[in-house]
């Protein structure tokens, strides 16, 4: 069986270093808020090109806490509207509604799966205060246009960068385009911890300072609480794992790109729509291929066929947020492009330990699908 993503293999590549880092933390006797976290925050900010990175417990909290901090700073208030792509992962929407803000869903571009920037301005009114730009599947959203619109209408930009560590556009990385960005280090992400972890990047010192308190009960100083904060800390063990794995992220991205290139050049089946269809080559080396997503009208048959061939695939995502039971108030909405995407997408294996023999087998199997 070719696994969609072999986490065991991925982490075993760095076994010795991970065990050594783990041992170092165990022997330090210091498990929360220590030198491993400080080092990771520095390393990750430097990787993204931002002034600050603030470690938190997971990617959802990263997004939730940025909106929360903006409320504490008086930049947002209850019922303000946040523009967000309709086809995103549910976490983006949860971060908005968890803060009593209102998600305004916008259709994505059918070719990039990211926010269609041409549709943003018609949704802006007096209540619109922010754009949550999601870099879905590992490719940056159309940030130059989104930034121009945000500047014109005085909107905040939060990047959901959970799938886009290291992705670039015009030489600027994910996490350094908006006013702030949320990252996830869930084990299956391009930079994955060995458990849950997340971070926020920003160049805004004031925001970073509020976030540092919010993640720790709203406190900068022990037993002195400025905000009614939460417990959302990135612990020392996970920070130590991430310090090891961050060193190899660029190498792993290159491996993903080589596989993506092989898929793009060799999958030749008229039933399959490949990603980046209408995109020029210049964009190619900016994508970090968290997911390699193809489309097929007979998606369910294709998935079943590939399973029979010993190839595991996944669907990102089968149900869009506005059709989820959790969001009954959105169920009446209709987003045909988003719904079409959810009916047709299929994610192929593209992990950092996938071999070229396996890639060859996947290409051949897809080309033989009728
Ligand atoms: C994974 C993911 C998140 C949430 O990250 P967690 O660490 O699982 O909380 C948010 N947004 C997107 C787009 C994601 O893919």
From TrEMBL:
The keyword Translocase does not apply. Pfam families: DegT_DnrJ_EryC1. CDD domains: AHBA_syn (cd00616). The modification N6-(pyridoxal phosphate)lysine is found at residue 189. InterPro entries: DegT/StrS_aminotransferase, PyrdxlP-dep_Trfase, PyrdxlP-dep_Trfase_major, PyrdxlP-dep_Trfase_small. The active site is at residue 189. GO terms for molecular function: pyridoxal phosphate binding; transaminase activity. One of its GO terms (biological process) is polysaccharide biosynthetic process. Gene3D superfamilies: Aspartate Aminotransferase, domain 1, Type I PLP-dependent aspartate aminotransferase-like (Major domain). This is dTDP-3-amino-3,6-dideoxy-alpha-D-galactopyranose transaminase. It comes from Acinetobacter bouvetii. The lineage of its organism: Bacteria, Pseudomonadati, Pseudomonadota, Gammaproteobacteria, Moraxellales.
């Amino acid at each position: 069986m070719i696994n969609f993503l072999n986490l065991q293999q991925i982490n075993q590549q760095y076994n010795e270093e991970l065990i050594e880092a783990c041992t170092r933390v165990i022997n330090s006797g210091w498990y929360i808020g220590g030198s491993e976290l400080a080092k990771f925050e520095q390393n990750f900010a430097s990787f993204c090109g931002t002034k600050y990175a603030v470690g938190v417990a997971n990617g959802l909290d990263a997004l939730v806490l940025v909106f929360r901090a903006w409320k504490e700073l008086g930049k947002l208030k209850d019922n303000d509207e946040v523009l967000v792509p309709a086809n995103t992962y549910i976490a983006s929407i949860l971060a908005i509604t968890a803060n009593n803000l209102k998600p305004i869903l916008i259709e994505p571009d059918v070719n990039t799966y990211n926010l269609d920037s041409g549709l943003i301005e018609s949704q802006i009114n007096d209540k619109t205060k922010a754009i949550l730009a999601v870099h879905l599947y590992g490719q940056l959203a159309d940030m130059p246009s989104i930034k121009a619109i945000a500047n014109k209408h005085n909107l905040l930009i939060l990047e959901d960068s959970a799938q886009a560590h290291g992705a670039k556009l015009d030489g600027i990385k994910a996490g350094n385009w908006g006013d702030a960005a949320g990252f996830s280090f869930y084990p299956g992400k391009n930079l994955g911890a060995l458990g849950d972890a997340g971070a926020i990047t920003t160049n805004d010192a004031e925001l970073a300072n509020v976030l540092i308190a919010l993640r720790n009960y709203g406190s900068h100083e022990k037993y002195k609480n400025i905000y009614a904060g939460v417990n959302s800390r990135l612990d020392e063990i996970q920070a130590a794992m991430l310090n090891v794995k961050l060193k190899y992220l660029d190498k792993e991205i290159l491996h993903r790109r080589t596989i993506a290139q092989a898929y793009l050049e060799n999958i030749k089946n008229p039933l399959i729509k490949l990603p980046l269809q209408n995109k020029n080559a210049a964009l190619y080396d900016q994508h970090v291929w968290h997911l390699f997503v193809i489309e097929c009208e007979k998606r369910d048959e294709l998935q079943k066929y590939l399973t029979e061939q010993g190839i595991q695939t996944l669907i990102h995502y089968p149900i869009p947020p506005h059709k989820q039971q959790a969001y009954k108030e959105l169920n009446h909405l209709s987003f045909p492009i988003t719904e079409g995407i959810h009916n047709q997408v299929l994610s192929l294996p593209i992990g950092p330990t996938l071999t070229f023999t396996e890639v060859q087998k996947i290409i051949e199997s897809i080309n033989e699908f009728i």
